[in-house]
């Protein structure tokens, strides 16, 4: 079973930057990040496939960049120009398309706080 290890969360001032990283233990087809802000539903932030295709939520496009070697289960997301509304728990996820089924995995979550 895949295990996801997250790092990079923290507290920054508005306009600051953070880099979130996530590593899976095995072969992966797609990875990405979800986030849940206080009082809000979980939302998709960014995804990247093992052939390098990326997708971003409109609210972060142009500020966040996701990259990595997805086939080998490692990715990171650079977050620039952070805003208070980016404050949330960020969850790494990974999807593996095996011969018998689709496997999905979630990280424990890492807190990102943007405040003065």
Q: Describe it for me?
A:
- It is a single chain.
- This protein has 116 residues and is an all-beta fold.
- It has no helices and eleven strands.
- The strands form two sheets. Strands 2, 4, 5, 6, 9, 10 and 11 form a seven-stranded mixed beta sheet that branches. A four-stranded antiparallel beta sheet has the order 1-3-8-7, with no helix packed on it.
- A hairpin with a 6-residue loop joins β4 and β5.
- The radius of gyration is 14 Å and the shape is elongated.
- The model has no long low-confidence stretch (mean pLDDT 95).
Distance between the termini: 40 Å
The shape is: elongated
Helix and strand run: EEEEEEEEEEE
Q: Average pLDDT value?
A: 95
Main beta-sheet annotation:
7 strands, mixed
Summarize the structure.
This protein is 0% helix and 53% strand. By secondary structure, the chain is mainly beta.
Fold blueprint:
Layout: E1 5-7, E2 10-12, E3 18-23, E4 30-36, E5 43-49, E6 54-56, E7 64-69, E8 74-79, E9 88-97, E10 102-106, E11 110-114
Parallel strand pairs: 2-11
Antiparallel strand pairs: 1-3, 3-8, 4-5, 4-9, 5-6, 7-8, 9-10, 9-11
Short key terms for the protein model shown above:
4-stranded antiparallel sheet; 11 strands; 116 residues; 7-stranded mixed sheet; 0% helix; elongated; mainly beta
């Amino acid at each position: 079973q895949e295990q996801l290890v997250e790092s990079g969360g923290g507290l920054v001032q508005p306009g600051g930057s953070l880099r979130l990283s996530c590593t899976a233990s095995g072969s992966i087809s797609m990875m990405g990040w979800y986030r849940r802000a206080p009082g809000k539903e979980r939302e998709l932030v960014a995804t990247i496939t093992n052939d390098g295709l990326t997708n971003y939520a409109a609210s972060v496009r142009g500020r966040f960049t996701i990259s990595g070697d997805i086939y080998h289960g490692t990715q990171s997301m650079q977050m620039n120009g952070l805003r208070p509304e980016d404050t949330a728990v960020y969850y790494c996820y990974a999807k593996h398309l095996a011969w018998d089924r689709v496997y999905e995995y979630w990280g424990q979550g890492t807190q990102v706080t943007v405040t003065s």
